[in-house]
Design a protein that fits this description.
100 residues, mainly alpha, 1 helix, 98% helix
């Protein structure tokens, strides 16, 4: 019987070692999978945050473009009114000169 135990010892050690190796590889694989999933989730959140920021900035840009257009229209109106005022002043100056 002593001989049988001695002959089975390498087999038992190999089985225990391979079970340990299998467990180690399994845990390592699970940890890598969890890390990849966490990274994927983080990237998804990051991309969503970027998408929201781009949408907000786009809305602000649209508003600024609209404001700029409105200001340009107001400037055109003011220039027109200024031209009319200059013409009126010139006309009044001419009438004053003729009365003298």
């Amino acid at each position: 019987m002593n001989m049988d135990i001695a002959s089975f010892t390498p087999i038992i050690v190999a089985l225990v070692g391979s079970a340990g190796l299998w467990t180690f590889l399994k845990v390592r694989s699970e940890n890598e999978y969890k890390a990849r999933e966490a990274e994927r989730e983080y990237r998804g959140e990051f991309n969503e945050t970027l998408r929201q920021q781009v949408e907000r900035m786009s809305a602000k840009l649209d508003k600024l473009a609209d404001d700029k257009e409105e200001l340009l229209k107001e400037i055109a109106t003011l220039r027109s009114e200024l031209g009319e005022a200059k013409a009126t002043i010139k006309h009044l100056e001419t009438m004053l000169m003729q009365k003298r």
